Amino acid sequence: MIPGFEDSVVFAGIGVVLLAGVVRGFTGFGFSAICVALLSFFVDPALIVPVILMMEVAASAWLMPNTWRDADYKWLMWMMIGLVLGTPVGVWMLSYLPAETTKLVLYGLLLVLGLAGYAQNRGILPKFVAPVFVVGILFGVGNGLAGIAGLVAAVFMISSTMKDETMRASMIVLFFFADLYALFVGSGFGLIERSQFVLLAVFLVPLVISISVGSWGFSRFGAGNYKNIALGLILIIATLGIFQVLF
């Protein structure tokens, strides 16, 4: 028994981590969004978010040795500048604003952006590439909320001319530093407790296994299919997030 967490929550968490880890290993993002959307049915997001952030750091550390050479570091520099400015805003929102209303608005926005990205890839809408600095600030806000950060970055990245391998590698490197920063900021808001480290230890083995499976899947099936799979994931998570908030 982990203080503050029922056994049913722990077992449900292991299942969610296995699912989200495969997605994270394949796409380089989506872990936090899936975990928050599904585990929010069982536990207050403010309790689980720090654990998810710590798992994100572990996942990126596990994936980075094989991906860091493919990352676009110019893009990452501008994203990190925006991240530094936006993350405290997101953490403040998580701590003080009505969480359900805030998440509903953000998931709705992501659903619209995801549909727009799909229309762009199909040639229905013209391509629009937002300034990386602006995307970085939005990413920072989402990183502080810890449920939609990867989706914010991915939905704009898909509209770029990056290669699939570069997109995935850039996301992995970005999350490593972004989640470390979010944990640092979050500790200042009193969101991190001792019991959360115990829960992290329970989740680490399922996390490593599942992201390894997802990474293998990308090496076999990812090239050429990444954008379509990533867009589909964005739309599914945004819809799931809206459903979770409403029902």
Q: DSSP strand (E) fraction?
A: under 5%
Determine the number of helices (DSSP H or I, runs of at least 4 residues): 10
Estimate the helix proportion, in percent: over 70%
Task: Give the helix/strand class.
Answer: mainly alpha
Number of domain units: 1
Structure description:
This protein has 247 residues and is mainly alpha-helical. It has one domain. Helices cover 78% and strands 0% of the residues.
Looking at this protein, list some descriptive labels.
10 helices; about 0% strand; mainly alpha; about 250 residues
Short note summarizing the structure:
The protein is mainly alpha-helical. The protein contains 10 helices and no strands.
Outline the secondary-structure elements.
Blueprint (H helix, E strand, L loop, with lengths): L6 H21 L3 H9 L5 H19 L9 H24 L2 H23 L10 H14 L3 H9 L6 H25 L5 H28 L4 H21 L1
